[in-house]
């Protein structure tokens, strides 16, 4: 299927590794010009080189900015220009008992996980509406629907992201612009892989064995394994495409069947 994405320009936040990197690579493979982002210039440039090697002829550039720092975000947006596709992927993730999460932690998670998407969308949406075309995709989580007890602060931000995406979609009424959210499930991103490696070393067991054990411990998973970042990226590709013109204001699952509710 031709996704009709060739010649478009995209921005993917938090894309030097993991899900964001997989999304950038998938878009490049469809002929999209992509601007990636990370906190540090060194990691951004390394990711740019990696993507150019993975996708020969790819048009990829990078902008370093920490979404916890509004001044850096302002500079990023000033230099970004117009885009046809904006993927709000950047986010913080971490386990913590509710009582141990400080007010500063709550603010930091909200700033990065929620306001990052607000700021990017506020920048790109007017141009999309004026051109009568565009896609905004939020990378959410099943944790925003079924908030984990050991990640209340994280789940709250993913629930808020759902609200932002649904509300923004209502601003696109009657246009060819759409705003949607992908609800990802347990994904074997670079960060998760590093944690698994550390735990495996501490427990004296092979990382592959621990990975399988952790995946099997999720009793509601129908996939019974970790999701690969590319599997999230494939859904983002579709939502970024003109083929998804009738999908707007939606929360689409790529959760491996973890969520048990019918809708």
Description of the molecule:
Helix 1 (18-29) crosses helix 8 (229-240) and helix 4 runs parallel beside helix 5 (152-169). The protein has 2 domains: 9-187 and 229-251, Rossmann fold (3-Layer(aba) Sandwich), CATH 3.40.50.720; 188-226, no CATH class. The radius of gyration is 18 Å and the shape is globular. It has helices spanning 18-29, 41-54, 70-80, 103-131, 152-169, 190-203, 207-216, 229-240, and strands spanning 9-12, 33-38, 60-64, 85-88, 134-141, 177-184, 251-254. The protein has a 7-stranded parallel β-sheet with strand order 3-2-1-4-5-6-7, with helices on both faces. The protein is α/β, with parallel strands linked by helices.
Keywords:
2 domains, single chain, alpha/beta, Rossmann fold, seven-stranded parallel sheet, 46% helix, 263 residues
């Amino acid at each position: 299927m031709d996704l009709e994405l060739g010649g478009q320009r995209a921005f993917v936040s938090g894309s030097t590794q993991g899900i964001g990197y997989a999304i950038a690579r998938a878009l490049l493979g469809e002929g999209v010009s992509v601007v990636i982002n990370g906190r540090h210039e060194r990691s951004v440039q390394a990711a740019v080189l990696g993507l150019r090697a993975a996708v020969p002829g790819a048009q990829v550039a990078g902008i370093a900015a920490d979404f916890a720092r509004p001044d850096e975000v302002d500079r990023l947006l000033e230099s970004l220009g117009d885009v046809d596709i904006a993927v709000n992927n950047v986010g913080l993730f971490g386990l913590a008992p509710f009582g141990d999460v400080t007010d500063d932690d709550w603010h930091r998670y909200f700033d990065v996980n929620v306001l990052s998407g607000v700021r990017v969308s506020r920048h790109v949406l007017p141009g999309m509406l004026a051109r009568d075309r565009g896609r905004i995709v939020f990378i959410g989580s099943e944790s925003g629907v079924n908030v984990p007890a050991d990640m209340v602060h994280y789940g709250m931000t993913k629930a808020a992201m759902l609200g932002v995406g649904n509300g923004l979609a209502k601003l696109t009424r009657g246009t060819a612009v759409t705003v949607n959210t992908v609800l990802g499930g347990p994904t074997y991103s670079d960060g998760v892989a590093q944690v698994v490696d550390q735990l495996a070393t501490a427990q004296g067991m092979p990382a592959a064995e621990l990975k399988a054990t952790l995946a099997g411990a999720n009793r509601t998973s129908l996939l019974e394994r970790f999701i690969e970042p590319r599997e999230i990226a494939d859904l983002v590709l579709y939502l970024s495409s003109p083929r998804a013109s009738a999908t707007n204001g939606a929360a689409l699952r790529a959760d491996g069947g973890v969520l048990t509710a019918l809708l």
